[in-house]
Each structure stands twice: as C-alpha cells, then as structure tokens.
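[step 3/7] fold_predict: job queued, chain A
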Amino acid sequence: MTISTDRNQQIQQLQQLIQDIDYVMLTTIDDDGSLHSRPMYFNGDIDTNGTLWFFSSASSHKTLEVENRQQVSVNFSSPNQQRFVSISGTAELVKDRQKLEEEWQPELETWFPQGLNEPDIALLKVNINRVDYWENESNFHAKTISL
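[step 4/7] structure written:
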C-alpha cells in the first residue's frame, strides 16, 4: 500500500467517525496562554488533504488567537453512539472568495444573514495533524489516526 492510499483510507475512516456530527468545540490559545473553546457549525466535510473548514468573522477574537498561535483542537461528540473524536492541528484564516462559495451552506445564514455578501466573512482552515478517538463503551481505549 502506498502512503497516499493509507492517507486516503485514514481520511475516509475519520469522515465516517464524524459524518453525523453538526456541531463541534473549537479550542484556540488566547494571548495569555489559556485555552478558549467555543461551539462551531461543522459542514460535515473533510477535503482530500485532511482539512476541516469553518466559517468565521475575520475580525473575531478566535481569528486573532489563530493568527498569534496556530495550534487548535477540534472536538466532536456523539454521546448517543458512544463516539468521541479529538483532532489537533494548525489553523489559518482564508478569505478566498472561490473557497467561500465552495464551502457555503444555507444553514450558515443563521450566523451570516447576508450570506456570502457578509463584509467580514472568512474561513478558518484547520490542517489535521492527529486524531484521537473513542467509540463504544465496551472498548474505551483511545485509538489514533496520524495524518
């Protein structure tokens, strides 16, 4: 098996683990070094590079945190299915119009009423470094996917 095939299989495995989870907790590092978490809407997609995308206001505090310290954590939880996924990676702000259009979903109008015409709209791109996950209570030992 090639490295590319292994990576594709790992991304597919991660996609299956998080496919039905719409909201996540995104954790960034604040100026004083403390952790700061907030819920984010997740569009359910991981691209072929192992990247997660989140819509955000470009001037929000979380984007300032990401600009200063790129390390983030994204946590998925499906308690009814006894499935928990913790992703660590690095984030960056993206304002590319084509990518915004590609990732846009109507559900996002709750936070961005003007849609893609929102003046401060941007994306947070999260490059995945490591995935730890736990599933079913009979085997609650962490498993890892390294992308």
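[step 5/7] annotate
The helical segments are 3-18, 61-68, 97-103.
The two ends are 15 Å apart (CA to CA).
exit 0
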